Amino acid sequence: MTRNNDDDVFWIEDDAEAAKNGPTVYTIGDLAREFDVTLRALRFYEDKGLLSPRREGLTRLYSATDRIRLQLILKGKRLGFTLAEISEMVEAHERHDAGADQQLKLSREKCLEQIAHLEQQKRDIEDAIAELKRTHETLNAMIDRPK
Question: Fewer CB atoms inside 10 A, N or C side of the chain?
């Protein structure tokens, strides 16, 4: 991750070397195997306009740019961003920073918002686990109670 001090923007870098040295055309199966995603997921990203493979008959052929976009989509998902947010960040990046096309642009504000969101989710999960443990203890007590 690198930081641009002028505008407090952070960049999440992908594996640019693999994109340069790898094939220039990928099938849906190639990308599914490489990134451990389902064919359905790739078609979903296409339906949402996040990927744009060309077609040869019924075959989808993905470019190196599509591969990079998929890598960025998956990184954004791993960080907990919605597809709408990921799409917005990728599109803004491609419009304004065409020279650095292997990175996902995140503002400081967006990072802080996502941290707060994930911390709230963590608290909610911890609360749910505690409630389930109490329920489990109650059920055990009911089963172990002499009749």
Answer: C
- The single residue listed with the structure tokens 């996040």 is 50
| Residue 2 in this model has a pLDDT that exceeds 70 | no
pLDDT in tens, 64-84: 989 988 998 998 899 888 988
Q: Is 100 exposed, middle or buried (0-12, 13-18, 19+ CB in 10 A)?
A: middle
Q: How many residues does the chain have?
A: 147
**How far apart are the C-alpha atoms of 80 and 117, rounded to whole Å?**
9
3-state secondary structure of 48: coil
Measured distance CA(73)–CA(82) in Å, rounded: 10
Separation between Cα atoms, residue 36 and residue 103, nearest integer Å = 20
Q: What is the DSSP string of 64-107?
A: HHHHHHHHHHHHHHHTT--HHHHHHHHHHHHHH-GGGTTEEEEE
**Model pLDDT, residue 22:** 64
